[in-house]
Amino acid sequence: MADQQVGQALPKSSAPSDRNAPLVVQRNEQLEVTRRLLRHPLGFTGGTIVLLFLVLALAAPLIAPFSPTEQPSRRLLAPSSTHILGTDEFGRDILSRIIFGSRISLQVGGISVVIALFIGGILGLVAGYFRGEVDGLIMRVVDIMFAFPGVILIIALAGILGASITTAMFAIGVVYAPLFARVVRGPTLTVMQQQYIEGARVVGASSTRIILRYVLPNIAAPIIVQATLLFSTAVLAEATLSFLGLGTQPPDPSWGTMLGSGRRYMEQAPWVAIWPGVAITLMVLGLNLLGDALRDALDPRLRSS
């Protein structure tokens, strides 16, 4: 009797640990990815650059020496101890405008990526999950959108809907949604061929449960990498729209707007256009380096190395 009681008790006592085992494995994988990312020289550099701009954006009112729209000094002053990066054609401090401009770049980039991920992710999941005619129809629409240059489509949408920061975010998100549709569809097709998907269907799991519990966790890695890389593209697209007058409108500080207005003074005061260009370059470089490092850190083929 005692042996039977012990034998019956063992499964009960081991059940919690069995249920917690997937959580432990998931935490270990997250720690391993973080460790690989921090040890990656390009990832550390890119992460530091992005973190610096994030701090500047969050603490802009505390860090910026002047208001981004205030005109405290004479126009086109050269860099000095008072105005470290000089002033623009209206006498506004360039450093303050670059610091506050990081807010707009991060906001547009982040919201654009969310819009693109939401639209493209749903399309990719639906295409990869249901396959057949649904997959063919969705992917033909995606192919049609890929036939047009992305920048041209963004400019066209922004021109039709009107020049504003909201329009810029919407246009960038919609135009780059097909990219996420393709990125999500491929891994989804692979996951749907696995045996545990068939097992989930046999026990009566709904499509929503299968997608949320089994599909999304297994395709998260390429989505994260693509989102990081698309972030840099969105920042560049916002700067392009603002440069053309279709994005952020004056007097709001935007790196693209600063480039657009500063190009007329390149010979007289080159710093007006140089510093916004440097800010855009650093932001895009940091995001690209971080995206490449994330791709390496999340690659299962490199985890054993």
How would you describe what is shown here?
Helix content is 76%, strand content 0%. It has 305 residues and is mainly α. Helix 8 packs antiparallel against helix 10. The protein is elongated and about 75 Å long. The N and C termini lie far apart (51 Å).
Descriptive keywords:
mainly alpha; MetI-like fold; 305 residues; 76% helix; elongated; disordered N terminus
Quick structural gist:
The protein has 305 residues and is mainly α.
Head-to-tail CA distance between termini = 51 Å
Count of domain modules: 1
Mean pLDDT figure = 84
Rounded to an integer, what's the Rg over CA atoms? 25 Å
Number of helices: 12
CATH level 1 class label: Mainly Alpha
Q: Assess the beta-strand content as a share of residues.
A: under 5%
Q: Major sheet, described briefly?
A: none
CATH topology: MetI-like fold
- CATH homology group: MetI-like
Sheet/helix structural class: mainly alpha
Residue stretches low in confidence (pLDDT < 50, at least 5 long) are 1-25
Rough outline: elongated
- Percent range for helical residues? over 70%
Second CATH tier, the architecture: Orthogonal Bundle
Q: State the total count of DSSP E strands.
A: 0
Q: What's the helix-strand series?
A: HHHHHHHHHHHH
